[in-house]
């Protein structure tokens, strides 16, 4: 699919559920993140994108990774 392919309502709902309620929930409080943790985290996100290969899922996933990085950095300072 190219970046201009729109998502169906079902794919949006299922993709967001997997992205936010499963993947992000799994990693949101996992600190500090080791290199192996990051590798697993990104591989799982890649798997989500393979299942739902839409631009929107990629962009939200990228934003969520940035949030995890901010949280990891904040928790490393304390």
Task: Explain how this protein is built.
The protein is mainly alpha-helical and 78 residues long. Helices cover 76% and strands 0% of the residues. It has 3 helices and no strands. It has helices at 9-27, 35-51, 55-77. α1 runs parallel beside α3 and α2 (35-51) runs antiparallel to α3 (55-77). The longest helix is centred in the last third of the chain and has 23 residues, at 55-77. The model has no long low-confidence stretch (mean pLDDT 94).
Reconstruct the topology from this structure:
Blueprint: H1 9-27, H2 35-51, H3 55-77
Helix pairs in contact: 1-2, 1-3, 2-3
Number of helices: 3
Largest sheet: none
Poorly predicted runs of 5 or more residues: none
Structural class: mainly alpha
- What's the number of extended β-strand segments? 0
Measured distance between first and last alpha carbons: 43 Å
Short characterization:
This protein starts with 8 loop residues before the first helix and ends with a helix. The mean pLDDT is 94. Helices cover 76% and strands 0% of the residues.
List keywords for this structure.
single chain, 78 residues, 3 helices, elongated, 76% helix, 0% strand
């Amino acid at each position: 699919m190219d970046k201009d392919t729109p998502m169906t309502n079902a794919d949006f709902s299922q993709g967001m559920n997997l992205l936010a309620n499963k993947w992000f929930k799994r990693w949101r409080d996992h600190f500090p993140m080791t290199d192996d943790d990051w590798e697993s985290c990104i591989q799982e996100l890649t798997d989500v994108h393979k299942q739902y290969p839409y631009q929107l899922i990629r962009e939200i996933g990228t934003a969520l990774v940035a949030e995890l990085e901010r949280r990891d950095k904040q928790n490393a300072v304390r």
